[in-house]
Each structure stands twice: as structure tokens, then as C-alpha cells.
Specification:
Helix content: 40-55%
Radius of gyration: 22 Å
Structural class: mainly alpha
Strand content: 5-15%
Number of helices: 7
Bound molecules: heme C
Largest sheet: 3 strands, mixed
Length: 179
């Protein structure tokens, strides 16, 4: 076989091997899809509170729901996490505000929280698809953790419909070309 041909054959073999691995991984994913409704958190943690804390950390919830968190690279003390933000996100949806989850969840029971997450509908930039994709066990862990933190702070402003004028500061989410 010419060396050029060898290269092609080798490349094809590598491609087939890669395709096989991808196919097998695909099988694994399909099997895991049913886990979405499972009751247990999928991460290993000593308690639901630990699991919830971890999921909130890696889920980026503090980036929006905790004032100053992102700006200080996460220096906000845990006692102040998820207390909501007064700066609105303005866009074609109107204005949304990162809800004070410490207060919101204190008046919502666990099943109501699950219903909200399953519906996964609301204004951007809340990552609704991420919440919707979480297993029930993960959602329950997040809920229990936030209830464990307890109510704190003041409610974020109510969302506004398109055209309504906000009373306070907003960040506008509208793409623009460089001038
Ligand atoms: C990019 C910013 C952003 C991130 C990140 C984010 N949120 Fe939100 N969240 C929002 C905004 C804005 C709203 C209000 C949405 C609306 O008005 O429909 C919201 C609303 C919510 C609500 C609805 C509360 C209610 O009472 O209606 C829940 C629950 C929630 N977020 C949980 C979470 C969790 C849990 C995480 C982390 C996994 C998270 N959010 C990450 C911005 C964010």
C-alpha cells in the first residue's frame, strides 16, 4: 500500500473508532435521560443542604441573584447569598429582576418550586432551561438549601411589561454593532 493510501486508511479507522465511541456515549446519554425524574441528587454530598449549596455555586445562581457577587469574584458572604438584585435586565421582554430567592421560596412550598422549575417559563436572562433540566432530586436540594439559608433582605422590584418605565437602574440586553 502506498504511504498516502495508508494514511487515508488509518484516518478512516480513527474516524470509525471515534464514531463508535460517540455512538456508545450517545447510548449512555439516552439511558440517563430517565434519571431526570429521579428523587436523589446526582452529586455525592453528605446532606441535601451540602448538595444544594454545591448546585447553587456551580449553577451560577449567585451571579445574578446576589448583588455584587460577580463583581467581587464571589466574595459575598454566604449569609447574603440570593437576596435578589435591584438592577433590572431590560430587553424585548420588558424588564426582569433577579428575584430575592430567600424571600420568594419562604412563601412557596417544595412542590410549588418543582412545578415552577418544571414549567421553566419566564423572562430572560434567567436560565430557565437550566432549571428545567435539573433532576427533581437536585431541585429539592436547591430548595432545601435556600430554605435553610432563611428569609433575608427586601423583594426585588416586580417585572415590567415591554414599554413600562422602570423606576431604577437597568442593564439593557440589546445587541449593537461597534461604531
Ligand atoms: C443571568 C442571570 C440569572 C442567573 C444566572 C440565574 N437567575 Fe434565576 N432569575 C433571574 C431573573 C432575571 C429572574 C426573573 C425572571 C422573570 O421575571 O421571569 C429569575 C427568576 C428566578 C426564579 C423565579 C422566582 C419566582 O418567585 O418567580 C427562580 C426560582 C430562580 N430564578 C432560580 C435560579 C436558580 C436556582 C439559579 C441557579 C441555578 C438561577 N436562578 C440563576 C436571573 C438569573
Amino acid at each position: 500500500m502506498s504511504s498516502q493510501l495508508c494514511l487515508i486508511v488509518r484516518a478512516q479507522a480513527a474516524f470509525l473508532a471515534a464514531a463508535l465511541v460517540l455512538t456508545l456515549q450517545g447510548c449512555g446519554r439516552a439511558a440517563n435521560a430517565t434519571d431526570a425524574a429521579s428523587a436523589a441528587p446526582r452529586i455525592a454530598a453528605a446532606t441535601d443542604i451540602e448538595a444544594g449549596r454545591y448546585l447553587v455555586k456551580i449553577g451560577g445562581c449567585n451571579d445574578c441573584h446576589t448583588p455584587g457577587f460577580s463583581e467581587t469574584n464571589g466574595a459575598t458572604p454566604e449569609a447574603d447569598w440570593l437576596t435578589g438584585a435591584p438592577v433590572g435586565a431590560a430587553g424585548p421582554w420588558g424588564v426582569s429582576y433577579p428575584v430575592n430567592l430567600r424571600l420568594a421560596l419562604s412563601t412557596m412550598d417544595e412542590d410549588e418550586f418543582l412545578d415552577l422549575a418544571h414549567a421553566g417559563e419566564g423572562r430572560p436572562p434567567m436560565p430557565w432551561p437550566s432549571l428545567k433540566a435539573m433532576s427533581d432530586g437536585d431541585l429539592r436540594a436547591i430548595y432545601r438549601y435556600i430554605r435553610w439559608l432563611g428569609p433575608k433582605g427586601v423583594p426585588a422590584p416586580a417585572p415590567l411589561a415591554p414599554g413600562e418605565k422602570p423606576a431604577g437602574p437597568t442593564i439593557t440586553f440589546v445587541p449593537s454593532m461597534p461604531s
